[in-house]
């Protein structure tokens, strides 16, 4: 009985071994190569359940990736045309499209294919960067550089049954020593530009200051001119009034001037004068306080001697000839609330006509 159970168990184990060794599964991420005595007999690229001759002695199955795979390169130093160096991070994506060729050329091992891809990828990037100038990798030529690197790798990888789908450059940075030199050069350029702008500003400031100083001198000169004209006009008007007064009554004018002389000469000076009572200075001392009679033939007032002062023409060009308008002098508010404005366009008041004596 025990021998019989042993035989039945052995048969069951053998049956299970034959069953499981004749079945293999291919999922959607894989593809399988079926080999009989080392020779490829079939390729399964569709997912599903498949059968083969039991045991691996006759038929064997090798599973190969059918996914999109990625190969990375990090911190790679490349030299561009001109001698500058970049540090580059890049990657490429690939897929095994011919399992038979992949088995024959790379033994179906991803490690072998990855070593070949890394070597070719490195050489392609160095070649692409070496054909360009310093700023090309940082410009719109970057997409063209990635396409060129992909096209350089594809022919050799196609011989392994691998298709290069895409090449991407993740980072392109200057090497540390190159970055420092570039920073110093940019800093020097910015300092030179700042110095140029500062010099231009100082030049414009000096020009505007000179224009303002000249305008100030011209304004002061014009104000002084107006003041002298008005002062002269006032003196002329005063003289005219005195002359008119003298012409109207010469005797009264002489009496008034004598009284002014007495006030000026004899008031609080402490001066002792010895004069004859009959001198012309004491002419009116013996008049007993009588005022001279008014003249019966007054003279007509004398007309103003000075012409009115007119304001300058506003349509004339600016003082400096550079389009800067003439400065307007500010008005001054006095303590009593009145405003003192610049004297521009002041006219001399007309003389008062006196009615002839009846």
TrEMBL record:
GO terms for biological process: proteolysis. Residues 21-186 form the Band domain. The keyword Transmembrane helix applies. CDD domains: SPFH_HflC (cd03405). One of its GO terms (cellular component) is membrane. Its main location: membrane. Gene3D superfamilies: Band 7 domain. The keyword Transmembrane helix applies. GO terms for molecular function: peptidase activity. It comes from the Bacteria. It is a single-pass membrane protein. Residues 332-358 are annotated as: Disordered. Keywords: Hydrolase, Membrane, Protease, Transmembrane, Transmembrane helix. It is found in: Membrane. Belongs to the band 7/mec-2 family. HflC subfamily. This is Protease modulator HflC. It comes from Devosia litorisediminis.
